[in-house]
């Protein structure tokens, strides 16, 4: 583990990341010894840092990522946490923040063998996402909604992902992924203006598919009509959802052309 570029596994107990979740993180796929979408992750980090007013030394962070990568296995996950750094008691940030950057490398989580061919199951989480337009999109450290939603897997052992709604019954994303679907033949992903994380893979798919993939507000009622469903994040890639438990009913979906095109694109990016 690297803390501001030095090998260490500890940070001061007065770090504001711990006290207030005052920081950001990125989780980056390591494939064949390189960081996938490294620039896009750095850009999202910089944007989040600008929103929170945390200084972000791009060049130093890029160098520390390279150092960590050189010591990591060829396949895995690099996690980067950037906090505002040490602080006293009270919310008001110090005038001259000294950010803390922690970089750690982890094994790649294994996916069940048949997941990509058969698709996974999903359920609707009871836990909702609050509206907060200022923080929507950025990957800040306050993830209690996801922590609470993830506890619902305890009663959904078979599920690969839980889908989350906002305060007004719009479907937003998965607990750890973005959501994509086909509705009336149109390729759509929820617009993330009120809540949700603008995923790096989501952004890549929006750019790759151009006007064919649209961002839209998607009411829960429309989910019942989905012809295809998949979730994606930059670590596990694209995972089809073929069975969704929804209000006591089960929705079955095909692994259709949109899902297949997205899966093929991720394989290309991986170089597989
Ligand atoms: C809540 C949530 N939404 C979306 C994503 C997808 O983000 P990315 O594609 O950057 O991995 C993640 C990834 O961890 C997430 O936790």
List the helices and strands and how they pair.
Elements: E1 2-3, E2 6-7, H1 16-20, E3 23-31, E4 34-35, H2 38-52, H3 58-71, E5 76-83, E6 100-106, H4 115-118, E7 120-124, H5 144-150, E8 161-165, E9 171-174, E10 178-183, E11 186-190, H6 200-209, E12 213-216, H7 220-223, E13 228-233, E14 237-246, E15 249-252, H8 257-270
Parallel strand pairs: 7-8, 7-14, 11-12
Antiparallel strand pairs: 1-2, 1-6, 3-4, 3-5, 5-6, 8-9, 10-11, 10-13, 13-14, 14-15
Residues 27, 146, 173, 176-178, 197, 199-202, 233-235 line the site of pyridoxal-5'-phosphate.
Strand content: 25-35%
Q: What is bound: which ligands? A: pyridoxal-5'-phosphate
Distance between the termini: 29 Å
Cα-based radius of gyration, to the nearest Å: 19 Å
Broad shape: globular
* CATH architecture descriptor of the largest domain: Alpha-Beta Barrel
Number of discrete domains: 2
Mean pLDDT: 97
Provide the structure class.
Answer: alpha+beta
Order of helices and strands: EEHEEHHEEHEHEEEEHEHEEEH
Helix content: 25-40%
Largest sheet: 9 strands, mixed
Q: List low-pLDDT spans.
A: none
The total count of helices amounts to 8
The CATH superfamily of the largest domain is identified as D-amino Acid Aminotransferase, subunit A, domain 2
């Amino acid at each position: 583990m690297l803390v501001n570029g030095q090998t260490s596994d500890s940070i001061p107990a007065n770090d504001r990341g711990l006290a207030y979740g005052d920081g950001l993180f990125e989780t980056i796929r390591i494939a064949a010894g390189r960081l996938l979408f490294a620039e896009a992750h750095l850009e999202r980090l910089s944007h989040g840092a600008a929103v929170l007013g945390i200084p972000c030394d791009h060049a130093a962070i890029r160098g520390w990522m390279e150092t960590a990568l050189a010591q990591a296995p060829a396949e895995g996950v690099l996690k980067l946490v950037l906090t505002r750094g040490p602080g006293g008691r009270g919310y008001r940030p110090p005038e001259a923040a000294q950010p803390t950057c922690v970089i750690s490398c982890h094994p790649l989580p294994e996916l069940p063998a048949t997941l990509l061919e058969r698709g996974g199951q999903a359920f609707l989480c009871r836990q909702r996402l609050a509206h907060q337009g200022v923080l929507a999109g950025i990957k800040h450290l306050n993830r209690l909604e996801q922590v609470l939603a993830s506890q619902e897997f305890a009663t959904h052992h078979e599920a690969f992902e839980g889908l989350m709604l906002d305060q007004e019954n719009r479907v937003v994303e998965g607990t750890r992924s973005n959501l994509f679907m086909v509705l009336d033949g149109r390729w759509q992903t929820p617009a993330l203006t009120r809540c949700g994380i603008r995923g790096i893979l989501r952004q890549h798919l929006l750019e790759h598919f151009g006007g064919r993939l649209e961002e839209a507000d998607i009411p829960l009622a429309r989910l019942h009509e989905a012809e295809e469903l998949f979730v994606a994040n930059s670590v596990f890639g694209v995972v089809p959802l073929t069975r969704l438990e929804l209000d006591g009913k089960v929705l079955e979906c095909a692994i259709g052309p949109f899902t297949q095109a997205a899966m093929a694109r991720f394989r290309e990016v991986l170089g597989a």
